[in-house]
What does this fold into?
Amino acid sequence: MGIGAGKYNMNGGLFLKKYYSLKLLLAAWLIISSFGLIQTPAAVADNVKGDKTFDIVEITDLHGNIGDSSSSPIAAVMAANFNEIRKANPDRTLILSGGDNYQGTAISNLDYGQSVMKVFNYMGVAASALGNHEFDWGVEKVTGIDGSSIEADYPILCANLFRKGDTTAPVFTPYKTYTLDGVKVAVIGGISESAPGIILAARISDYEVKDNASCINKYAQQARKEGAQIVIALIHEGDDLNNGASGPLIDIARKLVGVDAVLGGHSASIVQTTVTGTDGKEMPLEVANCNGKGYVDLKLTLHADGSVSSSNAKSAYVAQDTTGTIYPYGYKASSPVVDNSVKKIVADTIEEEAPILLEELGSARVDLTRTQADSPFGESLAGNWDADVIRTSSAAQIAFQNNGGLRCDIARGTVTMGTIYQFLPFDNVIITFDMTGSQLKTILEEAVMDSGKGIQVSGLKFAYDPDQPSLSRVVSISLSDGTPIDMNDNTKTYRVATNDFLAGGTTASPKDGFTFASQSSNLVDTHIVVRDILANAVKAAGSQGIGADIEKRIQSIKSSGAGPISILVNNQELKTDVAPFIQADRVMVPLGSICEALGASVEWNPENQSIAIVQGQSMLKLIIGNSSAVKNGETVALDAAPQIVNNRTLVPLSFVSQSLGYSVQWDANKSQVIIN
It folds into this structure.
């Protein structure tokens, strides 16, 4: 007993110390884990005998972001994350891309996406959908469908793109079946049905896009007949930025039959939801953000009875634009966890392209942001600078730039060629043409319509009323100097410049919603590359640096400082059938309404479009479109010229009222004019 007791006492203390130390360590690990500080992809354990769970990983809309403008190792961190997923489920991991892989950054643009392809090859991307931006350099350039050599070891899948006039077979392989741990998984690709309207006309003219749902259903049935047990639709299409509550991708998914999961793209959004197809099957619907900010890791389980379910359809997105240094790793960490092989691919590419990318062109004296100054649509500093350069470089009176063409802000400070590539990654050239006032109005209406995307302008200003019906919102247009543009005129023309993408839009096939080709004449291709003239403009600015100002080029009359405007004449509210608005810092008001309220008579001379206003001894003479007037026999300058809007003549309120002897006060807090 004594020997036993002594033995126990001698070793027992050490044993207890070890026991309690391990217990404390385990407790600490559990606490840390519960807060998510230690995470790895869970090794997949099948809960039911015969079940097999797969990691279906999607990235989408990478847009060449293998390393961002802050030198973040986006691709190298992504590869490290994918390594962890594969390690946890080595035989059942499938990595896919939703398209728009290459176009968008200088590092990728300069080698036409070959560096991205090398990264995808290393990461084991099995297939990619076809994105609209795969057409930016000609679809052959990044897909090799013409037999040219490219780096990609993975196929482009697309079931709904056909050569024009030939719908017998798609241009690309519609689907591919992969065998993972003995299970056949079919992936069917598709491109957005809106592609013809957002691709440069010359790049898409030989092709036509068919309905996604019918094409995918056809090949889903075919894949099932060939033994596919899981079918995935990989479509370059997105939602309405509402986590899949609505949008084109959701509309397609609801029409699908025999599909187990839908992976999308295009909308640069995060979607984690489910949708029910025509066959009554509920399936996951996912979109994995954009620019390498994250990815989807969808857990799909094939059950022994042949059914398919997902355990994380509403939580499949994994962010990597974080500071995480344990899985999932983040590329914003001070010392990010990376895959060194991918890091080297990117570093080698940057070293090769450095002489171009790092060339210092000059500087920006202000932050040229894309933030719009009015709502719902307005001008931006970046847009004003870009549009001004296009106009002055093409000797045009007016220039337009689509908002979607400007891909980043330009920060104050040094501007390199890499900055310009990032800002405008497209190889657009300037097209010039003639447009009438009526045609200009049509284009501006398209910019501010219900489905409009806004626009950036140079050489003109316009005001719009967002409360009016779509395509009837533009209330005034003028040149930058205040000279009004008659919105009903079909004779006088203005020389206009824009990029070749916008210039190709027709009524039948708009580009970003615009129909410039159907609203213009005398088109000329200048062959001036927009990116080149932007780079030259930075150089020409010298030590002063490039910059821009907000100049009230685009104004909503309902926004702060521009409306809604009320007018009190002798304490009575002035009623008008055309809403007053501000132009050149002057309130414009219907002539008939204000003259009636002031007790003045009006005489109209249609021959010279002049207006005579008489009250007592006071007499004014104004001419439509003329920035001068005659007041009691003396010629005076006008800040805003009279103009015709919706068949009503609008005149500068303060000038008319004060010339007739009335006092005018402006209450900025109420947006109200008081006339006594």
Notes: Residues 61 and 100 are 5 Å apart (CA to CA). The longest strand covers residues 183-191. The chain is about 25% helix and 30% strand.
